[in-house]
Specification:
The complex is a heterodimer of chains A (564) and B (355).
Chain A: H1 24-30, H2 32-50, H3 54-74, H4 84-98, H5 103-125, H6 131-153, E1 171-175, H7 177-186, E2 188-193, H8 199-210, E3 217-221, H9 228-236, E4 239-242, H10 249-264, E5 269-270, H11 289-305, E6 315-324, H12 330-340, H13 355-367, E7 372-376, E8 393-394, E9 400-401, E10 408-409, E11 412-413, H14 417-438, E12 440-441, H15 443-458, H16 464-468, H17 479-498, E13 503-504, H18 512-522, E14 533-534, E15 540-541, H19 545-552
Parallel strand pairs in A: 1-7, 2-5, 2-6, 3-4, 3-5, 12-13
Antiparallel strand pairs in A: 6-7, 8-9, 10-11, 14-15
Helix pairs in contact in A: 2-5, 2-10, 3-4, 3-5, 4-5, 5-10, 10-11, 11-14, 12-19, 15-17, 15-18, 15-19
Chain B: H1 6-10, E1 13-16, H2 20-30, E2 35-38, H3 42-51, E3 53-54, E4 57-58, E5 63-66, H4 69-75, E6 78-81, H5 85-95, E7 104-107, E8 113-114, E9 133-134, H6 136-143, E10 148-153, H7 158-162, E11 167-173, H8 176-186, E12 191-196, H9 199-221, H10 226-246, H11 251-254, H12 257-266, H13 273-282, H14 287-292, H15 299-314, H16 319-329, H17 334-342
Parallel strand pairs in B: 1-2, 1-6, 2-5, 6-7, 7-10, 11-12
Antiparallel strand pairs in B: 3-4, 8-9, 10-11
Classes of the chains: A alpha/beta (564), B alpha/beta (355).
Chain lengths: 564, 355
């Protein structure tokens, strides 16, 4: 039987801004050309600052050309523009000529080449938000999701065209929604969600819309644009492109300035601070500091550059966790994780899932009982202090403090990179703590955690890899033992919740047998090999230790092990 | 820190705590800038005002004593809190409402702060771990919005500093800005200032060396000579490194001024309070009488208790700390403790450095 989730506030939120032309992202796309030029100029200036001599600039260009040509030779994608080889070929020819000249003669040319490169990159990265296409996408998504849901669930003739269920029944949004809506009016919101699945970006896009917020911009892996259906969605939702194959300095600087200037200009943004999807299934522990530091830098620039007679726009960080029973890519992610653990292997960015598999998944998702919940965390300032409803930063004693003061030295706002690096670490630490606090435990997480830990306990001499190599067929947990352990761990989760160190879904409460059943029914529900099942004798068995380990990891880091 | 505007120069520097070290640091700072010196005791403020003198130190004309913490926070951007660890948190609670994120705090307190569960005392508690034991920089961050925190540590016997003997100190902070500010304010022709980024490591080195200082005093009090002291300093060093690592510091900090530098100084000096405690213990006095007769707290006594319980919890071998603990709190004689240490079956010289 299905344990029904408590009906959450399924209300529709009114848009906080009336028309799309008021949206920051629209403003950005309207002035696309100027914006790209500004990004290119800033990135250019930054690279020049770090490489003051002409020789260094030429070296940098040469290194970039070399890397780009290697990439084109080895790893070309469908989305890569057709004129790439020609562009880099030309740059290469022109740089070769330069190496025979004196620095004085070649300086102007080298600068021009560098600018051409960053300008091209800025263009590549820039998103293509179009109001008309955004509206179309939104309607398509709403229409088809509704058809899927109703067609599958209401078993009556003509059900296909009813509107009994909406997406809000499948996706539960909990947490500080009201505050988020207010903050998006007060200032610029940078949402920092956990990252488990490629579905995250689309899901977040939908959530933002359904909360009545204007579209957010976000960096999506260029690999996703290989999949046509994704490319269409993401272009229309304000995504800009992040190409993880390109690790050269001009590209990284351009990317950084793109995201930073967008935030500085007031475009609400989404950063996945974990960088890529969590391979292990654990909540993020290490965040990518680059993106966070650009947020801090944007805030400092706002304090520095806003004319004194105008109010300074504040940037708010909002942590978000996405909670799934099932992650489509789990088996591959955990394989990646396991094979890279111990040896620093290069992880190729590849996706085995094309449009068809995704549609299949979506169909399954909407027709079967697997829900997703999204926890919206409390708003923070760029240092990591909580903010109140009006966006004021608060200290631990609820006293209002001025975020500007963090950048003040000797009475005025100053630029100090080392100081901001340290603030970045503080912010990162804060976000990780918030993730753990707002993480919403599902029954499926509980059963996966308990089962894996029990097996670990039964084989104290085996390390992780030894355990994962055990033949699955021979392993069985007695139901009574499993049940008792689930109860103990659940009790501890309650206790942690009291201390506001974790959250749990409403379905975690109630009779433990029902909770276990709900967990078993849902954990990794669509995998070919189910991570956890009940045998005919009523005991607990697994078909795949690795994916079980993956789902188990969701509860790692809470010291729950000793309660199993 | 490129710009040094006039207003910046005009702001006074705050020192909180008019003990020996606080007074001397205030005097050093006064060579550069105006100083506001906070004393908890109104009589001390009045005395300094009237006599330009405190605890036998002549106080510089640029120092204004005050009894008002909020005034310090309002007038100063850079503040040096130098109060005993036992009063540090309560002082911070009082100061905190007046602090802003633009403040820089550089403390000079070599002790731990302990928060225990209700009903427990440091004597009674069975297990002590890092969640209950805090360094002063951690207390500052817990109690206030100040992020730019640093600490001052090193061989800084107040008396010698006052007399202008050559000396050095280390300022540790995660923020280069704090180190630079500290250097600019304190450095002079006979006072060298070094920087270190391992804030907690340097704090731990400064705190843990007090344990070894008591032991050194005890050896001296027994009438033993330089061989014994060499033995103690080198083995004490190893013990500090292990304990320090268990508590979250890096080995490196212990090899610097705040570690070996401070250790060598305190272990040889009758000017050190901690050394004195050990010396008088070995002479047969008991702990209560010794502490009662001292004008300032010897941080080391408390530290021995905390270090011993933490060593138990983290399973760190700390024979010197353990022996000292038994001498201080379990009536073991210094002589017996020494016998125990000499029989201790550990004889690898150095095993804390990676090859």
């Amino acid at each position: 039987m299905e344990v029904v989730e408590k009906k959450n506030k399924n209300k529709q939120y009114k848009p906080i801004l009336d028309g799309i032309p008021d949206w920051p992202v629209y403003q950005l796309s309207k002035n696309r050309k100027e914006f790209i030029e500004e990004v290119a100029q800033r990135a250019f200036a930054q690279i020049k600052k770090n490489r003051p001599t002409t020789k260094q600039v030429i070296d940098e260009i040469q290194a970039t050309v070399y890397r780009e040509q290697q990439r084109m030779k080895r790893n070309r994608w469908r989305v890569d523009p057709a004129d790439e080889p020609k562009f880099w070929g030309t740059i290469k020819n022109e740089i070769v000529v330069l190496s025979t000249k004196t620095p004085e003669e070649s300086q102007a040319k080298a600068d021009e080449l560098l600018y051409r490169i960053v300008y091209r990159y800025a263009n590549e990265i820039a998103g293509n938000f179009k109001a008309s296409s955004y509206r179309v996408t939104r309607e398509i998504v709403k229409f088809w999701f509704a058809r899927l849901l109703n067609g599958a669930r209401v078993k009556k003739f003509g059900a296909f065209f009813r509107n009994r269920y909406s997406l809000r029944d499948k996706i539960h949004i909990v947490g500080k929604v009201g505050q988020l809506r207010k903050l998006a009016k007060e200032g610029t919101v940078v949402m920092v969600p956990t990252h488990f699945s490629n579905l995250d970006s689309i899901l977040i896009g939908w959530i933002i819309h359904s909360l009545g917020l204007p579209a957010f911009i976000y960096g999506a892996g260029l690999n996703l644009f290989n999949i046509k259906i994704f490319a269409y969605f993401m272009n229309s939702l304000g995504a800009y492109k992040v190409d993880r194959r390109k690790k050269n300095v001009p590209y990284l600087e351009t990317l950084k300035f793109y995201s930073m200037l967008a935030v500085q200009k007031g475009a609400h943004s989404i950063f996945f601070p974990g960088g890529t999807r969590s391979r292990s299934g654990k909540l993020e522990e290490q965040l990518k500091l680059g993106l966070l530091s650009s947020t801090i830098e944007a805030q400092r620039n706002l304090y520095l550059e806003t004319p004194p007679d105008q109010p300074v726009r504040k940037i708010f960080i909002v942590p978000v966790t996405l909670n799934y029973h099932f992650v489509l890519e789990a088996p591959d992610l955990i394989d990646d994780y396991l094979s890279s653990k111990g040896q620093d292997r290069y992880l190729p960015e590849q996706d085995k899932y094309g449009s068809w598999q995704l549609l299949q998944f979506l169909f399954k998702f909407f027709t079967k009982g697997s829900n997703i919940s999204v926890s919206i965390g409390p708003g923070l300032d760029v240092i990591g202090n909580y903010v109140d409803e009006d966006g004021n930063s608060l200290d631990a004693h609820q006293r209002i403090i001025n975020t500007r003061d963090y950048f003040v030295s000797g009475g005025s706002v100053t630029i100090d990179r080392q100081r901001e690096d340290e603030y970045t670490r503080m912010l990162s630490h804060r976000i990780v703590t918030e993730y753990h606090r707002i993480n919403r435990v599902f029954a499926s997480h509980l059963v996966a955690f308990v089962a894996f830990e029990l097996w670990q306990k039964k084989h104290p001499n085996l390390d992780l890899f030894g355990l994962l190599r055990l033949p699955e067929d021979d392993q069985e947990l007695q139901y009574e033992e499993f049940r008792a352990a689930c109860k103990r761990v659940r009790k501890q989760i309650y206790k942690l919740k009291e201390e506001s160190k974790i959250y749990h879904a409403t379905h975690l409460k109630g009779k433990i047998d029902l909770v276990i059943r709900h967990g078993l029914d849902n954990v990794g529900i669509f995998h070919l090999k189910r991570p956890l099942l009940m045998s005919k004798e009523g005991n607990i068995i697994t078909k795949d230790f690795s994916t079980l380990y993956y789902y188990h990891n969701r509860l790692a880091g809470y010291d729950l092990e000793k309660f199993v | 820190m490129t710009s040094r505007s006039l207003s910046d120069k005009d702001k006074p520097i705050g020192v909180i705590g008019a003990g020996n070290f606080g007074s001397v640091i205030a005097n050093l700072l006064a060579l550069r800038r105006k100083v506001l010196l906070y004393a908890r005791d109104k009589n001390v403020v009045a005395h300094i005002l009237a006599k330009k003198e405190n605890r036998g130190y002549k106080m510089h004309d640029g120092i204004t004593p005050t009894h008002d913490l909020s005034m310090i926070a309002e007038q100063c951007d850079v503040i040096f809190p130098i109060v005993p660890s036992a009063h540090f948190r309560s002082m911070m609670k009082e100061l905190s409402p007046h602090l802003h994120p633009y403040h820089l705090l550089i403390h000079g307190t070599k002790g731990f702060d302990v928060i225990l569960p209700k009903g427990e005392t440091i004597e009674s508690i069975a297990e002590l771990n890092r969640s209950m034991v805090k360094t002063m920089s951690e207390v500052i961050k817990e109690e206030s919005v100040v992020a730019r925190v640093g600490c001052l540590a090193g061989p800084n016997l107040a008396r010698e500093l006052a007399e202008g003997h050559p000396a050095a100190t280390v300022i540790a902070s995660h923020f280069d800005e704090v180190i630079t500010a500290g250097k600019r304010l304190l450095r002079n022709d006979h006072f060298q200032v070094y920087g270190n980024n391992d804030l907690v490591g340097v704090e731990l080195a400064g705190v843990l060396k007090n344990v070894i200082a008591i032991a050194a005093g005890a050896l001296s009090g027994m009438g033993y000579g330089e061989n014994a002291k060499g033995l103690l300093i080198s083995r004490g060093m190893v013990e500090m490194v292990y304990l320090g690592r268990a508590l979250g510091g890096n080995t490196k900090a212990f090899l610097g001024i705040a570690g070996i530098g401070d250790l060598a100084t305190t272990c040889n000096s009758y000017l050190s309070r901690n050394f004195n405690v050990g010396y008088r213990l070995a002479q047969g006095e008991n702990l209560n009488d010794i502490t009662a007769s001292m004008d300032e707290i010897a941080e080391g006594v408390n530290t021995v208790q905390i270090a011993k319980k933490c060593a138990d919890y983290y399973k760190v071998r700390a024979p010197i700390t353990l022996a000292l603990y038994q001498v201080l709190f379990e009536d073991l004689t210094v002589k017996k403790a020494l016998e125990y240490l000499m029989r201790y079956p550990l004889n690898v010289d150095i095993d804390f450095l990676a090859e």
